[in-house]
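Q: Here's a chain of 337 amino acids. Please give me its 3D structure as tokens.
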Amino acid sequence: MDLAVGVHPHRRHTLSRYLVALALAAAFLLSASTTATPAHADERLDAGEQAVVSADGDGLNLRSLPSLAGAILAEVPDGTVVTALGVQQRADGHCWERVTHDGQPGWMAAEYLVRLGGAIDEDADPCAEAASTEDQEDEEVPTPSPGDPGVLPVPPPGGWTVGLAGTSDIEALVEAQTFDVASVWMLDVATQDYDSYIVGAPAFVNEDGLPNLGPDSVVLMRRTGDKPGDLGEPAAAPADEAPRGVANVLPTPPADKFTIGVSGTNDPAVLAASQPFEVKLVAMLDVPSQTWLTYIPDAPDFAQRLARGQLREDSIVWLRAGAVFMIRRTASSTPTP
């Protein structure tokens, strides 16, 4: 977004009183837009506090990293309420606030967030105590805690499991499992590449590793060993189970590609209908049987293999996009930053 304030030229009028009236009106509008320009919250946001996106009507990007280089997970309109996670970091000339939006964690520029019900303070700096990439060369900055590693469901030998990492420390994540881990994989939704970490491999194999691994990352793990021949069938769906939970909005993938995340609901139809893009397929890995259970929107019942109740609120799901609905924006309505 262009941060400069632009004033449109007025037409000349032969009558001076109209010229004066127009000048006064322009001054009033300019003054009003200046005083209404949103600023960041009056002080840093603590975990659990809510803030409102206020970016001059242009909306704000939710990014995967605290940087302009971070992938855009969502374009969030002005007036949307987000929840702070209590973490700030300074980079690329912005103070970045770690937030969740519709269940999706990410980073937003803090100067466009206003504390819900709070005052606006033009001079406040919510990143005053946060790590700064510009200052790291000059002073030692405390390293944030990587988080507690998640313990994933145990797969059969040679099989796969999936869950939330809970940490940014790949070695701690591997060590926390109750089975021998062969490899760890993570989908980059923007590029559709799977980044990998091979346990026990030489350093050059894991040179890139999982650079974007974080507590909220979804990871796949493969267990060492050879997969048994018969693992049985997936558990049947409970009869007449009521809908539960609130569907999460997952990062939008490219057309005809996949995204991944936590369902938030036990109803695959509700999950598919809640996305801002057309969903062609909902897929879930049943870890004990190593079977893919799938739901296809608008397909007949006999074609469905993933039902309400088999899907749980905390299930990890893959969604395949059909059409991706892009919002047409003018130059003055580009989300910032």
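Q: Can you summarize the key feature?
A: The helical segments are 16-35, 170-176, 268-273.
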